Amino acid sequence: MDLARKLRNQLTGVPLGVLLSLCAAHCCNDTLQAVITALYPMLKTELSLDFTQIGIVTLIYQIAASIFQPVVGLVFDKHPKPWSLWMGMAFTTCGIIMLAFINSFGGLLLTVTLVGLGSSVLHPEASRIASVCSHGKRGLAQSVFQVGGNFGSSIGPLLVALLVAPYGRKFVLLFLIVSAIAFAVMGHIIKWFRTYIREQKRNRDKTASRHSMPLSRAKTFWVIIAIMVLIISKYTYMACMTSYYTFYTIDVFGAGVSASQIYLFVFVVSTAVGTLVGGPFGDRYGRKVVIWVSILGAAPFALALPYVSLPWAVACSFFAGFMLSSAFPAILLYAQELLPNHLGAISGLFFGFAFGIGGIASAVIGNYADTYGIEAVFRACSYAPLFGVVAFALPRLKPSKEV
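Predicted structure:
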């Protein structure tokens, strides 16, 4: 009863239907994105790819998903459009259709580019809508929104293992059902956001006031640099796990393709749980505490994973994913509190930078795997979370209730 009462208090004033729709839309979007990485073992065989080419595929996808995100965020900050979410899902749907039929490396690159463009629209736009509908519960709102993406990323590989791996790549077309669900739930978000935009226009003088920055411009610049180091640390390790963990379990432990997808599912579920915990914890105790505890807390599990048996490796992957993922809502909101007048642009910048780092890291890791082997990759990447030590340099900010 106490837990239910606390949850109701936290959600007071928040349009819960919109927030849950954002969560569902993010879940559908990231389920479709996860299909690509989950199909890597099948694509590697069917298209005769090496690990370097797998890394290039991830790089191209992440570049498409990252370069445009800050631009999308900046443009729609100034000129918000309620239909923007549908536009992003249209790109992703086209990519999924192509994925079922392509038979060349070039076709695969075009496919992942379309899916990446869809992601570049959804993330900054949906994240900004989550902030403006939060009524001051920004950590909670971002966690609910982002946990949808984490859950989607976790069920994507599982659905591929159940529906595609046993029957063939053309069964990817079944994921058009997920796309249709996304278009449907986005309709509710678009209706609410259209009303919100009209209200903002009617109260232009009131909403034109700007919020002051908590730090000087020079100090803000250096804090943003420190945050980017944290993102490099987090997403280098995440790229290793999401792109190559299936290969690691297959090569090192002799797992089958379907079993490897289930182990990846365990890891991605842990990221969903961590994301859901991180935002509200940051609302209560401060973003900085969550950031340094979560990123450095992942280090022991990441360091142990390459040296333990399969059951312990699965356990280490779960706890490393949980700790790392609890950081991102806090990182994003910390950056938004540094620059409170540019919510969409900051969301796009940090989602985009995270995607870009993931892509670059995946390409480098793929080349390293071809040269030194997949086990060497996991030993080297296990040190990435240690760079989270820079979190100690972040100044403590008073959580902002403004959006």
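Summary: The chain has a mean pLDDT of 80.
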